[in-house]
């Protein structure tokens, strides 16, 4: 089996300020060698400051445009991100899908644009509580993953990350049990393996949904959970540092 380096990704959403950038960078830079690759994804205004202080971690963006350039007020292109030497970008977060109407087709476009620019996309997939209760978890997740495969081929996942984030567990304090999360992660890996076993085995699959320093160790101990996409807990310096050390 191909060894996969774990990932601890902080998604600050529309939170944080320069003092948080400085405090988090100082703490993470002092962690030394960790088993996990650490990635901080702040809001756009703080990317440059975060990047300038990054030693023990990488920097990612929370979103990007599917367009290269032009009259798209308020948008940020992949080329702008790579110009700042940003390495990761979150694509298709459930909040982007639900609040801003990003569908599977648009998400697949953004995913491909990120790859072509040399960014590592973190593709977010996951079901709502209604979909889970209806028994549609696998169908929903499969459609979200296959939107990329059907459009760009399974090779698109050769240098990418998937984050499974059950929508009902994001920011609610509710968390899928480690076993529940593992079940879906195993399904995702098996789905990709139907197209390419080698890519499936090297593909990092993260769990997102109220990950914290109390549950991270149990989650990350699962065979198909390769780390976390961390929201609220990533805004607390010591909590996030503990999560990074819990692999």
Strand order of the largest sheet: 1-2-3-4-5-6-7-8
Report the structural category: alpha/beta
Kindly state the number of beta strands: 8
Mean pLDDT: 95
Number of helices: 11
Q: What is the distance, rounded to the nearest whole angstrom, between the alpha carbons of the first and last residues?
A: 19 Å
Shape: globular
Largest sheet: 8 strands, parallel, barrel
- Rg result: 17 Å
**H and E order:** EHEHEHEHHEHHEHHEHEH
Strand content: 5-15%
Q: Which consecutive residue ranges, at least 5 long each, have pLDDT under 50?
A: none
Residue share in helices?
40-55%
Explain this structure to me?
- There is one protein chain.
- By secondary structure, the chain is α/β, with parallel strands linked by helices.
- It contains 11 helices and 8 strands.
- The protein has helices at residues 18-29, 47-53, 78-83, 94-100, 104-116, 129-133, 137-152, 178-193, 197-202, 216-220, 237-244; strands spanning 7-11, 37-41, 58-61, 88-91, 120-125, 161-164, 205-208, 227-230.
- The model has no long low-confidence stretch (mean pLDDT 95).
């Amino acid at each position: 089996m191909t060894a996969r380096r774990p990932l601890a990704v902080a998604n600050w959403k529309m939170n944080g300020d320069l003092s948080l950038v400085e405090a988090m960078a100082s703490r993470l830079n002092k962690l030394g060698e960790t088993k996990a690759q650490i990635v901080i994804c702040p809001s756009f205004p703080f990317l440059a400051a975060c990047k300038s202080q990054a030693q023990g971690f990488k920097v990612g963006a929370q979103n990007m445009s599917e367009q290269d350039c032009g009259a798209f007020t308020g948008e940020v292109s992949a080329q702008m991100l790579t110009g700042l030497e940003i390495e990761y970008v979150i694509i298709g977060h459930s909040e982007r899908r639900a609040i801003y109407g990003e569908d599977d087709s648009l998400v697949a476009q953004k995913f491909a644009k990120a790859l072509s620019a040399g960014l590592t996309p973190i593709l977010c997939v996951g079901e709502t509580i209604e979909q889970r209760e209806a028994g549609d978890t696998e169908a929903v997740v499969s459609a979200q993953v296959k939107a990329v495969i059907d459009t760009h081929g399974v090779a698109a996942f050769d240098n990418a990350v998937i984050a499974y984030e059950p929508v009902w567990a994001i920011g609610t304090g509710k968390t899928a049990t480690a076993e529940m999360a593992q079940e879906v992660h195993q399904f995702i890996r098996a789905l990709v393996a139907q197209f390419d076993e080698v890519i499936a085995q090297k593909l990092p699959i993260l769990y997102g949904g109220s990950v914290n320093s109390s549950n991270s160790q149990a989650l990350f101990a699962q065979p198909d959970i390769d780390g976390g996409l961390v929201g609220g807990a990533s805004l607390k310096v010591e909590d996030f540092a503990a999560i990074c050390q819990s692999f």
